[in-house]
Amino acid sequence: MTSTQPIVIVGGGLVGASLAIALDHAGLPAILVEAAAPRVDDQPSYDERNLALARATVNGLAAIGVWEFAEANATPIKHIHTSRAGDFGSVRMDAAAEGVDALGWTLPARELGAALLRRLDRCRLLTRLAPARVERIEAVDGGWSVTVSSDGDTRLISTPLLVGADGTQSGIRSQLGIGTREHDYEQALFVSTMIPERDPRGRAFERFTDEGPVAVLPLADRRVGVVLTVAAAEADTVAAMDDVTFAAFAQERFGWRLGRLSRPGKRSPYPIRRVAADSLIAPRAVLVGNAAQTVHPIGAQGFNLGLRDALTLAELVTVAADPGTPALLAEYATRRAADREGTMAMSHGLVRLACLKQPLLGPLRSLAMLALDRVPPLRHALSRRGMGFRLHAPLAVREKTP
Ligand SMILES: Cc1cc2nc3c(=O)[nH]c(=O)nc-3n(C[C@H](O)[C@H](O)[C@H](O)COP(=O)(O)OP(=O)(O)OC[C@H]3O[C@@H](n4cnc5c(N)ncnc54)[C@H](O)[C@@H]3O)c2cc1C
Which CATH code for domain 2-73+112-181+275-356? Predict the structure, then answer.
């Protein structure tokens, strides 16, 4: 069976699903091919990780009709506190000081996944194949022929625009011949929830230590989400800890700003690699989300960045007669370049610089933190970045002024 579709999206994770919804919202037909069945429990990235969503991201999700399904489970971030163990000074960002009700929101990925699935069910022009896998792609005149297998059946779909939204190990990226630059942080990340003695009251914390960064995010029901980075060699030991030992370990790394941390929830370890595609585009093909760039999760940028990829692409193809022309794809790559490079550099640089043990760096880092905290224009610029606002950001994520 062969059919033609104006846009084929490979991968219905957080970013691919968002793109499919944005296209449908804009009145464009497309097909979304996802290997997992359309259930939260089956989708690998709709899991227990707690996402920090920047304000701009929530604007974007609201614009495409997803946020109304997620909002009830989200917790506003009113204040962000960043510090480094052993250095003096800290950087504080505050929603009220920026004149907004929240700098961002936290939301478990499974709740965002559930909201995306509910919104996908309402799409009218979108065709969904799930569970279904793209097995092969072949360049043909004017686009790609995509081989999809599902339930023992194979079908061919031809398209003038192929979108790789198939995650960090993107098969589409390698079949397009796009190489990657990779960095293994030799770290593992543990994600869990805990109950702090003191109510976080909308405060999120990022703390850098010699052993790696730790983030604590406010969640519903007075819980916090804890994201703990450990050296890869330590991962098995941390995974084997009982709850009391893990709570003490997290406490030692995070400190006592919220009093005693107790009752850790389910603990999930993740390996950490930075993977950056050498190019975002190939003839009549484009990469979005983790397939384009996978960053260190501690900066909480991966989905925020990927959504800006998706919404930028949706914005460009909405006004184009042919969605896969070289000019359109070049425009996509140009519009994404500064945000992509800047966000990747910041996530990478932050983790490396903030965790380096070099004693001479301590006073410099402290001075930098003091400057960022005490010089209002610097702090304002940092807060705007933290809220996800960037030059050339897609229209959907911008702040609506009444
Ligand atoms: C612990 C942790 C915490 C994080 N915290 C944050 C945070 O606070 N804020 C933030 O913005 N980001 C965060 N991130 C990053 C964020 O989760 C990712 O950037 C995001 O999930 C990437 O989505 P994606 O759709 O690009 O890729 P994925 O979620 O990996 O989805 C790819 C999809 O493609 C499908 N697929 C693959 N191959 C095929 C094929 N051949 N055919 C069909 N389907 C295919 C897969 O089944 C999968 O569903 C975090 C990540 C981790 C690990």
Answer: 3.50.50.60
Ligand 1 mean position to 59 CA, how many Å? 20
Tell me how far the alpha carbon of residue 295 lies from the centroid of ligand 1, in angstroms: 11
The CATH number, out of the four listed (3.40.50.1820, 3.30.70.1350, 3.30.9.10, 3.20.20.140), of the domain defined by the range 185-272:
3.30.9.10
126, 161 contact by CB (below 8 A): no
Question: Which residues, judged by CB distance below 6 Å to any ligand atom, belong to the binding site of ligand 1?
Answer: 10-16, 33-36, 43-45, 49, 51-52, 133-134, 165-167, 171, 189, 191, 270, 289-290, 297, 300-304, 306
Confidence of residue 299 (pLDDT cuts 50, 70, 90): confident
**Domain extents in the chain:** 2-73+112-181+275-356, 185-272
Residue 14's Cβ-side half-sphere holds a number of Cα atoms within 13 Å equal to 27
* Complete DSSP assignment for 157-186: EEES-EEE---TT-HHHHHTT--EEEEEEE
Q: Which of 129-133, 272-276, 385-389, 393-397 is the least confident region?
A: 385-389
Give the distance (Å) from ligand 1 centre to CA of residue 97: 33
